Amino acid sequence: MLPVEDAPGYRVLDQAGRGGFAVVYRAYQERLDRVVALKVLSVDRVDQRTMRRFQRELQLTGRLTGHPNVVTVFDTGVTRSGKPYIAMDFFENGSLRDKVGNEGPLPVPDVLRAGVKLAGALAAVHEAGVLHGDIKPQNILISRYGEPAIADFGVARVVDSAEVSATSHAFTPLHAAPEVLTGQPHSASTDVYSLGSTLYHLLAGRPAFHNPSDPSIAPLMYRVLSVDPPPLNRPDVPPGLFEAILRAMAKEPGQRYASARAFARRLREVQAELGLPMTDLLGEDPGPGLSMSTVPRRHAGSGPPAGT
Q: CA-to-CA distance for 64 and 297, rounded, in angstroms?
């Protein structure tokens, strides 16, 4: 049993989960008398420059506090042993990976609805000047109202810049864009790729390039770099949706959607083509394109208008 990390001002209640580079505790924040999720990153010797950048990204993301599809971050800091932590809203319903694990592949209308909301949230984040860098089903939490919400902003950069603790799990790049695997930096386009890969996972019940008979890293990287995503063996998945996901997952960044907002618009078009209700894309439309319902939502201190 690993020792529980000690974060000043928080009392750990129990361990809620463990991921590749972090342990999540359910904790009590004494000053504000509330239960939070305390995520402690399993990295050692984080330099001050990396930590300042991490905190700045979380501050920028804080502009979107109240956004229904972005997990609210309350606080950041370091534990007494020097590991970075994030205190955030506690989501008792788990992640989209948990949901797929429990229920299997999700219905097409549910995936489209989640896709529009998540692509819109990602667009809002990009417009606030932040990249995510690690979009995947386990980083999308489910609120008590059933809403998907993106978590873990900035974590990928801390992990990239720090020495990973020997206690952390091995990294598996199941949803990473090809250029990230070849050493290129994260970008808005790599986030779009990872979101497309996530939607594929929701429809297939597994990541596009995962092969249970050969899960080792080298063959996986070859498939990500060189092989097209396999067809979805689901007759209920319309060609338009599969094509939209394939475009988001294009090997070349220039062949993907120009922005997360453009991806959201295309998913709304697919909803319309199927006769489904079109999920609202919140926020002002920054340019010409498909007409969408807009709900102006400004927050104090916000920069560009947020959109989901």
A: 10
Q: Which two tokens stand for residue 193?
A: 């790729």
CA-based radius of gyration for the chain: 19
- Structural domains in the chain, CATH included, are 11-88 (3.30.200.20), 96-163+172-273 (1.10.510.10)
CA-to-CA distance for 224 and 196, rounded, in angstroms?
A: 13
Catalytic residue among 134, 152, 160, 191: 134
Catalytic: 75?
no
- The Cα-based distances of 3 to 6, 12, 15, 40, 168 in angstroms read 9, 11, 11, 12, 14
CA neighbor of 75 nearest in space, from 30, 38, 128, 35: 38
- From first to last of the 308 residues of the chain, give the pLDDT tens digit: 456 778 889 999 999 887 656 788 999 998 999 999 998 877 665 667 666 766 766 676 677 777 889 988 888 888 888 888 888 888 889 899 999 999 999 999 999 999 999 999 999 988 888 888 889 999 899 988 899 999 876 554 544 444 433 333 334 589 999 999 998 988 999 999 999 999 999 999 999 999 888 878 888 999 999 999 999 999 999 999 999 999 999 999 999 999 999 999 999 999 999 999 999 997 645 444 333 333 333 333 333 333 33
Q: Can you read off the two tokens belonging to residue 104?
A: 């299997």
Q: Which run of H or E residues covers position 164?
A: strand 163-164
Full DSSP string of 61-80: HGGGTT-TTBPPEEEEEE-T
Two tokens at 282?
């919140």
Report residue 270 as tokens: 């697919």
